Amino acid sequence: MALRMNRPNAPSTRLDRLRGATPARRHDARTIAALTGNPGCSRRAVLDAAGVDKHAVARRIGFPGSFGQSRFALARGNAFEAMLKADEGLLLLSALREVLPLDAPEVDYDDLGGEADGTRGARHARTRELLAEAAGAALIDHPLLTLDVAGQTVFLEPDLVALQVHGRLHVVEIKSFAVVDGRADGAKVSAAAVQAAVYVLALRGLLVELGHDADLVSHEAVLVCPENFALRPVAALIDVRKQLSTLRRQLNRLASVSSLIDELGEEVSFDTALPPAELIASLTRIEARYAPECLSVCELAAYCRHEAGGATAALGRPVRDALGGVPTVAQALALADGAEPQTPELAEAATLLRTAARLRAEALG
Amino acid sequence: MSTLVALARAQAQAAGRAMPIARVRHVHVHDRPLVLVPLAMAGEANAPLAAMVGAARDRPCLLAVAQPRNRDQRFAFAAELAEQVVPYLESFTGVSEAVPVDRGRDVRYRFVDAPQVWVPNAGGVDFLRLFGRSTRFRTVDGEYPVPASVPLLGRWLTFLANAAEVPGSALLPDAVRALGMHWASGQSSTEDGQIASLLAWIDPREPIADALRAAERTPPAGPATDPDFDNRVLAPLMNADPPRLDELTAALRAALTPTWELMWQALDLLRGLPPGARVATRWDGDRDAYSAFVQLLAEGGPPQPRHDSAVAAAARLSRLENAAARYAVQRAFDDPLVMAEHRLTGAAFAGTVTMSAPDRVDDTGKRPVLRPRIIVQTTEPVRVATGAALTSPARPGQKATVVSITRLPAPRAADTLVAPDAGDEPVTEVLLELSGGMGRKLVAEPGSVPQAGETLLLTTLTDSFRRPVPFPEAADTPWTHGGPPEPN
To answer: Where is this region: Disordered (chain B) (predicted)?
Structure first.
C-alpha cells in the first residue's frame, strides 16, 4: 500500500490532477445514489471519482443545464424536518412507534448538530462513540458517517438514525413528498430508497470497524413523509436489499476506475479554467453511455446528448432494441432500405428492418 | 416499442420532422373541448399555484393563488375552478337518447354528448386526480367549511381521472399522449414529455434545431414549474409585503400562455386527421359513463371512496383489462399502419386469395351448413396454428378457421398472384374455412366470400363482443375479497 502511495500515478494524485485547480466536489448520499443510475458510463464514473464539478464543466463548454432546486421545495422540506425533530423528536418518535417496536417509554435523543465542516472530525468520533455503546433505545440526529468512494473517504449525513431497543439499527429517511391514501410517487420513493441504502452501507462499514456484526443494521429503512395534504408524519418500512447490492456493485466498479484513469494521457484535464475546446477534447477521451434518462440526473447530459446525435440509443433504449440493436440511425435506415449488413450479427436486424420498412411503406400507401 | 414505431422515430430523426405512425385519428376530439393547464406549487402536496382554463382559445381564464400554502386560498381557488369547470361538465345533460338493452326488451337513456377536458400531459391528469382527492371529502360545515361547489368539483375530477385510466376513453385526454399515438418524433419519449418540444417535431415552423431551441425556452407545461422561475420570479413576488399580486398574476399568465396556445395547436393537428371507424363507438362508452355519473350525482350518491373494496377493485381491473384488449384490436382494425405492427410480429398477415369455393356446404352434421373454403398465399411470416380462428378487418363478422398451412418449397411468384415485389421470399399457402357473416341461406350473400385475386388481411385479433365473466355473488365471494369466512 505504501509503495502504491509513492507512485506518481497513485489514484488520488492522478484524480487531483484531472480536476485541476478546482476544489473537489463533495459527494453526498444524493450523488452516490446517482452513480447507480447509469453504471455503464465511464465518463461519469471518472468525473465523479475525481470530484469534478460537472455542472461547471457543462457551463464552460456551452451546455448549461437547469439543475436547481426550488426554494419552495427546500422550505417545505426544512419545515417538515424541523417540525418532526422539535421537542427532542417527539412527533418523529410517535410516527416511528407505528412501524418499529420501540417499547421503551423514554428514548434518548442525541443531536450531534452543527453543519460546519470544522466539527466533522468531532461529530464522526461522537457518532462512533454512540454506536459503540449501542445500548438503550435512542435517536441519533445528524450523525456523521463515512464511506469509501473510489479510494476517497466521503462524509455522509443521514437525516437521522434510529437506534432500536433490541440493538438493531434502522436508518430513518425524512422526505417531504406526500403519501396520499398510502400511496406516493414511485420515482421519489425509489430515489429515497437508494439514498437510504447509501446510509445503511456506511453504517454497516462503521459497525464492522468497531467489531460488531454488519447485520446489526437493518436492511429495512424507515421512510417518514407527510400524510395526505397536511404535514402530519407517517412512517413506512422500505426494504433496501436490492438497492444495497446495486450500490455495492457500483462502488466496486468505481474502485476499479483507477485503471481507466491510468490509461488517460497527462494532457487530459477537467480544470474549468481551461478553454472550452480543451475541455471538450478531454471529455471525448472518456467514453460516455448517453441515455435519455441521463437528462434528469447528470449535469453533463445536454453535452452527451449533443455528442450522441444520430445514435439510436439517444432515442431511448427501447428504440435501439426495437431497431435490432443497430447503433446508428443512418445504419438502421440504410439496412431498412435494403443495404447489405456489414457484419453477420446485423443480418437478423437487417431482415427485420427491411420487413418493417416494406410494411410501413405499404400501409402509408 | 414496436419496430415500426422505432423505424418511424429513426426516419424522423434523419428527416428533422415527425413521421406519422397512424393513418387515422384514434381519439375522439370534441367540437367544444375544455382546455385546462394546471400549475402546482413546488414541494407542496398538490397545492395549486395557478390554472389556465376555458373552452375558447381566445378567452383563456387565469386562476392564480397568491399564497398556495394558505389553505383558505387553496379552497378559494378550488371554488373558482369549480365555477369555470362544473358548468361546462354539466352542460351536456340537455338531450338524451334511448338505447335498446337486453335485445330490445328494455331501453335506457344516455346523453347525446359528453364533456371532454384536455390537459397537457400525464402529470396534469395526476394533478387533477389528487386535487379531486383533496376536495371531494370537504364539507360545507364543520371546522373548515367550503362552498358546496368544492366537493362537487372534487367528485367530477375524480370521475374524469378514473376515466382517464380506461384505455380508449376520451373524457380526460392528455395532449402529449394523444399526439404521441399519431406521430413519432426524432427524439426520445422522455423528451416528448414536453409538449413544446414534441410539437416542434410535428409542426415545425423553422428548422428543427431552431425549433427545439425555442421549445427549450418555453416554460414547462406543468404541473411542475421551473425551479429557476420559482426562485427568481415567484418567490420575490410572493414574499413581498404586501404580496405584489398584479405582477404575480402577470408572471403566471406569461408562464401559462405558451402552453395554452400549444394545446389548441395540438387540437387543430389532431382534428386534421380523419377519425377511425371505431372512435365513435368508444365515445358512446364515454357517454354511457358520463350519463351514469350524472345520475349518481342526481341521486345523491356518496363521493368516490379513498380505496376500492377488494371486489370493486377486481371488477375494475377486469374492466380495464378488457378495455385495453378491445382498444388494441380496434386500433389495428381501424388503421393499416397499426395493423402493420401485428403483421411484423406474425399476428396478422396479408396475402392473395388463389382459390375460392364460395358455395361449399358441410353436410356431415345434423343439418347442412354453408362453409366456404379459400386458399390464401402469402410471403409474410405466418405464425398461427392449424385450427386457429382468424378475422379480416374487411369482414369483422366472419370467422376463418385455419384448416392447413403449407410452406411451398420454391418461390412461385411467376405463376401465382403473389405481389410482384415478393422477390424470393418463401411462400406460404393457408387453407381456410369460413363461417358467419354470409347471410342465413345455404348460398353466400354476394360479396360476403373473398374471391380469387382479392388481397386479404387475416389476423388472430378479434373485435367480436366477449361477454364479461360474471363475478361471484356476495355469498360466494372468497374471504380474500371480503366474502364470508369459510366454515370449518
So the answer is: 467-488
Give the containing element (helix H, strand E) for A73: helix A71-97
What size, in residues, is chain B? 488
- Model confidence over B222-277: pLDDT tens digits? 899 999 899 999 999 988 888 788 999 999 999 999 999 999 999 999 999 999 99
Q: Which domains does chain A have, with CATH numbers?
A: 2-67+251-291 (no CATH), 71-244 (3.90.320), 312-364 (no CATH)
Chain A residues near residue B343 by CB distance under 8 angstroms: 359
Could you write out the DSSP letters of every residue in A149-168?
ETTEEEEE--SEEEE-TTS-
Q: Which of A180, A323, A364 sits opposite B130 (nearest CB)?
A: A180
Cell of B5: 414505431
Q: Are A316 and B190 a contacting pair at CB < 8 A?
A: yes
Looking only at the bridges linking them, the beta strands covering A169-174 and A160-163 are antiparallel
Integer Cα distance of A9 and A30 in angstroms: 29
Instruction: Suggest the residue from A63, A229, A297 to mutate for an interface test with chain B (most B CBs closer than 10 A).
Output: A229
- Pairing type for strands B19-20 and B395-407 reads unpaired
Q: Is the pLDDT of residue B419 over 50?
A: no
Q: Which chain B residues in 319-378 lie under 8 Å from chain A, judged by CB atoms?
A: 336-337, 339-340, 343-344
Smallest Cβ–Cβ distance between A363 and the set B190, B231, B340 belongs to B340
- Write a three-state SS string for chain B: CCHHHHHHHHHHHHHCCCEECCCCECCCCCCCCEEEEEEECCCCCCCEEEEEEECCCCCCEEEECCCCCCHHHHHHHHHHHHHHHHHHHHHHCCCEEEEEECCCCEEEEEECCCCCEEECCHHHHHHHHHHHHHHCCCCCCCCCCCCCHHHHHHHHHHHHHHHHCCCCCCCCCEHHHHHHCCEECCCCHHHHCCHHHHHHHHCCCCCHHHHHHHHHHCCCCCCCCCHHHHHHHHHHHHHCCCCCHHHHHHHHHHHHHHHHHHHHHHHHHHHCCCECCCHHHHHHHHHHHHHHHHHHHHCCCCCCCCCCCHHHHHHHHHHHHHHHHHHHHHHHHHCHHHHHHHHHHCCEEEEEEEEEECCCEECCCCCCEECCEEEEEECCCCCCCCCCEEEECCEEEEEEEEEEEEECCCCCHHHCCCCHHHCCCCCEEEEEEEECCCCCCCCCCCCCCCCCCCEEEEECCCCCCCCCCCCCCHHHCCHHHCCCCCCC
Residues 411-450 of B with CB under 8 A from A: 421
- Between A71, A295, A320, which is nearest B230 by CB? A71
> Which secondary-structure segment (H or E) carries A26?
none
Bridge-based pairing of strands A138-141 and A108-111 is: parallel
Q: Which three cell numbers stand for residue A305?
A: 446528448
The SS3 assignment for A289 reads coil
Comparing C-alpha atoms, which of A63, A291, A356 is closest to residue B184? A356
Task: Find which of B44, B70, B418 to mutate to test the A interface (most A CBs within 10 Å of its CB).
Answer: B44
Which chain B residues have a beta carbon less than 8 Å from that of A355? 344
Q: How many CB atoms lie within 10 A of CB B252?
A: 25
Give mean pLDDT, residues B164-176: 97
**Residue of A80, A360, A362, A364 best to disrupt the B interface, most CBs of B under 10 A:** A360
Minimal-distance CA residue of chain B relative to A349:
B3
Ranges in chain A, pLDDT < 50: 1-10
pLDDT in tens, B279-299: 999 999 999 999 999 999 999
pLDDT value for A213: 82
Contact residues on chain B for A176, CB-CB shorter than 8 A: 43
Contact residues for A309 (Cβ-Cβ < 8 A; gap 6+): none
